[in-house]
Design goal:
The chain is built from 1 helix and 8 strands; from the N terminus they run βαβββββββ. 18% of the residues are buried. The strands form 2 sheets. It has a 6-stranded antiparallel beta sheet, with no helix packed on it. It has one domain (9-102): Roll (10 Kd Chaperonin, Protein Cpn10, Chain O), CATH 2.30.33. 4% of the residues lie in helices and 38% in strands. The protein has 104 residues and is mostly beta strands. The protein has one helix at residues 17-20, and strands at residues 9-14, 44-51, 55-56, 62-63, 72-75, 81-85, 88-94, 98-102.
Amino acid sequence: MNIKPLADRILIQPIPSEDLLNNGEGKTKSGIVLPDTVEKEKPEQGKIIAVGPGRILENGQYQKMEIKKGDIVLFSKYGPTEIKIKNKEYLIAKEEDILAIIAR
């Protein structure tokens, strides 16, 4: 793919919500328990496809990104921008929209 995010932006391939839950028990496949209170507005999950170089600081240097290509992350539902590339849906988000990296 020939997309390189700028600054502190990240290209995410969303993981469908039905792939997240294990037998409808309110628990992700990786073991994260989702309480009933987040059923309606739960965070989304996706795989990082590409990352930008980082946020530019006042001194002109880049602040290194904490996220890397291949990470599985939780992100806020309304933070990223939806885009379509070759009939596939992706999201572009700022690093601040990422809530957590899911350890494997």
